From TrEMBL:
Gene behind the chain: trpS
Motif, 'HIGH' region: chain positions: 10-18
Main function: Catalyzes the attachment of tryptophan to tRNA(Trp).
UniProt motif ('KMSKS' region) ranges: 194-198
Protein name stated in the entry: Tryptophan--tRNA ligase
Reaction(s) catalysed by this chain's protein: tRNA(Trp) + L-tryptophan + ATP = L-tryptophyl-tRNA(Trp) + AMP + diphosphate + H(+)
PANTHER family, sorted: TRYPTOPHAN--TRNA LIGASE, MITOCHONDRIAL
Annotated NCBIfam families: trpS
GO molecular function: ATP binding; tryptophan-tRNA ligase activity
EC class of the enzyme, as a word: ligase
Binding sites annotated in the UniProt record for ATP: 9-11, 17-18, 145-147, 185, 194-198
Gene3D superfamilies referenced in this protein's UniProt entry, alphabetically: HUPs, Tyrosyl-Transfer RNA Synthetase
Quaternary context: Homodimer.
Keywords per UniProt: Aminoacyl-tRNA synthetase, ATP-binding, Cytoplasm, Ligase, Nucleotide-binding, Protein biosynthesis
Length: 327
């Protein structure tokens, strides 16, 4: 089976964008692949974060992985900082990463947002660590949302450059797996921006743990337009984003959805979307609270995951050290 690797940062409440762009796709394809899914806590410290919050969020995210359907029969689940090889490899690879390549990363530019003098170096080196996460496991496919396209190109470039320098296929060159639908879920309040954990406007996103009342309020407030036509139209990003969410959740085609809501108003469509969201999220939340009430079991799953992946990571790291002349 081909190897799949991906991860999410435990930086806040995970939202519908993370679910539809990443997690849901991991779950749907898990039986086809040899999967490794990580909670990338080393990435989460690239921006200031409260230690207690980081520790709790890490467990919450692990519980959500399982509650959304990741199954330990198909997947190894672990916390990134529990496998030291990620940090060690990241130092070595940073010595093989031209600064010019990192200077081009748009996520760094937007997250540093004009604070270049004060932002920490870890944020700048974030893409190198991400590349190491993937390369350590000789990964074939990396299922991610559209915003990770550039980081994945960098990962491929780093792997190819390293292999070329040492004239040996040390790394498998991985491919990003970006699905057509749901790869870029937009903010509910400003639909030209992506839905994001760090947006200060709480109404901009649906969190996976939102209760039905909150979901209803957020969808009813979501920005649309005055045309009142329930159709997919790039010129009207608000309604198109809501329709895309509905499309991914129902699996219906754009034509089927437009036909079902022809002549109907936004109110009727939003009610159907709310209904879909609530029925999708309710079972996930139920399972999540069960898992959070049994933390020792959850910790056991994560420990086992780390124990299983560590030898895989160590094999690649040792090979890298050997070709570089370290150790
Ligand atoms: N809006 C989105 N639509 C589709 N996919 C998305 N992803 C993130 N936002 C969307 C995908 O979710 C996975 C995990 O993301 P992450 O937490 O590792 O990275 P992130 O991009 O930092 O997530 P956020 O929510 O956007 O957080 P902030 O606000 O910190 O930037 C990735 O596969 C990502 O593509």
């Amino acid at each position: 089976k081909k190897r799949v690797f991906s991860g999410i940062q435990p930086t806040g409440n995970i939202h519908l964008g993370n679910y539809l762009g990443a997690l849901r796709n991991w779950v749907n394809a898990q039986a086809e692949y040899d999967n490794i899914f990580c909670i990338v806590d080393l990435h989460a410290i690239t921006l200031p974060i409260d230690p207690v919050e980081l520790h709790t969020n890490t467990r919450k995210l692990a519980a959500l992985y399982i509650a959304c359907g990741l199954d330990t029969r198909y997947c190894k689940l672990f916390i990134q900082s529990h496998v030291r090889e990620h940090a060690e490899m990241s130092w070595i690879m940073s010595c093989f990463t031209p600064m010019g390549w990192l200077n081009r990363m748009t996520q760094f530019k937007s997250k540093a947002a004009g604070n270049l003098d004060s932002v920490d170096t870890g944020l700048y080196c974030y893409p190198v660590l991400m590349a190491c996460d993937v390369l350590l496991y000789q990964t074939h496919y990396v299922p991610v949302g559209d915003d990770q396209r550039q980081h994945m190109e960098l990962t491929r470039d780093l792997a190819q450059r390293f292999n070329a320098i040492y004239k040996r296929p040390v790394f498998t060159v991985p491919e990003a797996q970006i699905r057509e639908e749901g790869a870029r879920i937009m903010s509910l309040t400003e639909p030209t921006k992506k839905m994001s954990k760090s947006d200060t406007d709480l109404n901009s996103r649906i969190n996976l743990l939102d209760d039905p009342k909150t979901i209803k309020k957020k969808i009813n407030r979501a920005t649309t337009d005055s045309l009142r036509l329930v159709t997919f139209d790039p010129e009207r990003p608000g309604i198109t984003n809501l329709l895309t969410i509905y499309q991914v959740l129902t699996g219906e085609s754009q034509q089927e959805i437009e036909a079902a809501f022809a002549g109907k108003g936004y109110g009727e469509f939003k009610a159907a979307l709310i209904d879909r969201l609530v029925t999708t999220l309710e079972p996930i939340q139920k399972r999540y609270y069960e898992l959070m009430n049994d933390l020792p079991t959850l910790e056991g799953i994560l420990k086992q995951g780390a124990d299983e992946v560590r030898p895989l990571a160590a094999t690649t790291l040792n090979q890298v050290k050997e070709v570089v002349g370290l150790g």
